[in-house]
């Protein structure tokens, strides 16, 4: 329920902006102190009678006020034991947590579904409740209450929805800090890297089209004037631009995977023909790619994504293979207990993969010592395989190269 009160004044909006800036400046050391600072900041802005930051406690299925404003109503709430709300008790705060929908009632005492302790014990008349998400998951509620009817307006609602997002960020930072483990810190760095890199990839992508058009114009002019040195230079620049475009595409695919937007367009694909195409494009003097296996093998797949996966595997193999030693692609069929599978293997004759690298080989931004690049290729290949219902595995011994096997289920009539 949302009250249709008039908008706030410019002075109120200025105070809201100032409060958001103060929220950003909070340096958390632990959850309770950070959430206490948040509650105090919000109450000073809204001039409410009480502000709570409730977080869900899974072990007791209870919403716990880990941060409460230092106010008479806040102290009364603790004395009455209303700073802990079991989910089974219901009430509007629990409803916000379960539905994710903002609650705004200007006459809370007239609400039959609110807890009696809130209406009578605390005397709450106006109430706004906003969901708090931490790491993209519902984790609690930012609750703001007043003993005065019709106290809040729509500007307050919008401000508190923004504030709740910052609370989630602050809580996330605290939890990462409290974990103090290598895994948690690594994940935090990766999350930050993904967000930053995805934004940068979008921005870089916007600049590629005019660059590509300009290079095409230079290419045509150089060809028309038969300026061989300029042709050579512009062709090299076009190759670099193509590599940059592929890198940006990989970066954006990582973002799509994280957001659940990675989709497939599947239809019958000849895996042998696709592998042959990839081998021909990838083969260069001293870095030949050879194809072996069946003459034809058709699977239901997204050819663009499968081509992307296989090209990544081949490029990875070429990077580690010695000059004049070929990379081999093998396409074959295997009958398993759960049905027929297509196996696309990529074998290099490089130094092999170090044992300490193997456990995190398919993780985002993972790469071995001395490796260049961002470490996204194998992560994307595995994600593409899994999106098709398949798998990506690797076998390797030091000094004996590496064998990657992309397995896809076959649908037989």
TrEMBL record:
Q: Where is the Histidine kinase domain?
A: 199-412
Task: Quote the InterPro entries the UniProt record gives.
Answer: GAF, GAF-like_dom_sf, HATPase_C_sf, HATPase_dom, His_kinase_dom, HisK_dim/P_dom, HisK_dim/P_sf, Sig_transdc_His_kin-like_C
Q: What class of enzyme is it?
A: transferase
Tell me which domain of life the UniProt entry assigns to the organism this sequence originates from. Answer: Bacteria
What are the EC numbers?
2.7.13.3
Q: Show the Pfam families listed in the entry.
A: GAF, HATPase_c, HisKA
- PANTHER family, per database record: HYBRID SIGNAL TRANSDUCTION HISTIDINE KINASE C, TWO-COMPONENT HISTIDINE KINASE
Q: Tell me the protein's name.
A: histidine kinase
Q: Which organism is it from?
A: Cystobacter fuscus (strain ATCC 25194 / DSM 2262 / NBRC 100088 / M29)
Taxonomy of origin reads: Bacteria, Pseudomonadati, Myxococcota, Myxococcia, Myxococcales
């Amino acid at each position: 329920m949302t009250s249709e009160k008039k908008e706030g004044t410019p002075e109120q909006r200025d105070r809201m902006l100032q409060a958001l800036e103060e929220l950003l400046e909070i340096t958390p050391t632990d959850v309770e102190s950070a959430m206490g600072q948040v509650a105090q900041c919000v109450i000073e802005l809204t001039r409410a009678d009480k502000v709570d930051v409730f977080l869900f406690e899974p072990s007791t299925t209870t919403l716990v006020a880990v941060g409460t404003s230092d106010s008479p109503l806040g102290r009364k709430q603790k004395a009455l034991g209303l700073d802990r709300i079991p989910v089974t008790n219901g009430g509007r705060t629990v409803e916000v947590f379960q539905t994710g929908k903002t609650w705004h009632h200007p006459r809370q005492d007239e609400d039959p579904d609110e807890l009696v302790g809130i209406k009578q014990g605390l005397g709450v008349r106006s109430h706004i409740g906003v969901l708090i998400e931490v790491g993209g998951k519902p984790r609690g509620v930012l609750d703001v209450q007043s003993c005065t009817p019709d106290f809040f307006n729509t500007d307050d609602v919008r401000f508190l929805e923004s504030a709740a997002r910052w609370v989630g960020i602050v809580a996330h930072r605290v939890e990462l800090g409290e974990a103090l483990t290598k895994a948690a810190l690594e994940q935090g760095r990766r999350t930050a890297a993904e967000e930053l890199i995805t934004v940068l990839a979008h921005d870089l992508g916007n600049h590629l089209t005019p660059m590509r058009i300009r290079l095409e114009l230079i290419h045509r002019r150089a060809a028309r004037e038969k300026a061989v040195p300029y042709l050579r230079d512009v062709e090299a620049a076009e190759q670099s631009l193509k590599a940059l475009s592929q890198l940006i595409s990989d970066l954006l695919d990582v973002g799509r995977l994280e957001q659940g937007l990675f989709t497939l367009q599947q239809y019958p694909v000849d895996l042998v023909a696709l592998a042959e195409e990839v081998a021909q494009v990838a083969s260069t003097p001293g870095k030949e790619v050879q194809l072996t296996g069946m003459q034809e093998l058709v699977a239901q797949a997204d050819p663009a994504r499968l081509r992307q996966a296989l090209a990544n595997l081949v490029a990875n193999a070429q990077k580690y293979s010695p000059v004049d030693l070929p990379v081999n692609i093998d396409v074959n069929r295997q009958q398993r207990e759960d049905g027929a599978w297509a196996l696309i293997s990529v074998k290099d004759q490089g130094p092999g993969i170090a044992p300490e690298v193997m456990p995190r080989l398919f993780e985002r931004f993972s790469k071995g010592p001395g490796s260049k690049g961002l470490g996204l290729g194998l992560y994307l290949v595995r994600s593409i395989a899994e999106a098709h219902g398949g798998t990506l595995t690797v076998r390797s011994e030091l000094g004996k190269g590496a064998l990657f096997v992309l397995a896809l289920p076959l649908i037989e009539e």
